[in-house]
Write the structure tokens for this entry.
Amino acid sequence: MKDNETIAQFLKITKFPFEINDDDGNVTYYEDSEGYWFKREFDSDGNETYNEDYKGYWFKREFDSNGRKTYYENSDGYWFKQGHDSDGNETYFENSDGYWVKQEFDSDGNVTYTEDSNGKTTDYRPKTTITWEEISEKFGIDPDKLKIEKKGS
């Protein structure tokens, strides 16, 4: 094959579109009569893990065992990472721009806590109520001698 020669040109294909499929039926190479082409790769679960086109643009992706995307990167230098809990909720996200976010979820899939790289924190977790007696017992202090000060006082 010569430089800049497409697969169809190399094989002298004249009927378009020209496609190559893997054993699972996924199109791994496509070319049309105008010279547009792309090639793709798939993992054993059928997730597209790599894609490249005739302009040189490409991207690659990684997936966890449940088919959820965990990593993405492209030829422009952009990337991101994602983490998920066992229920599929996105618990972590980070990208090449420096942005990140962490999240917690309750058993119903509702967000209970969020924190991000911009300094924003949102907390929907249930608040705990505790009595003076419980505090004094926990720390072994007589309740009449217990004093709580605000931070910075």
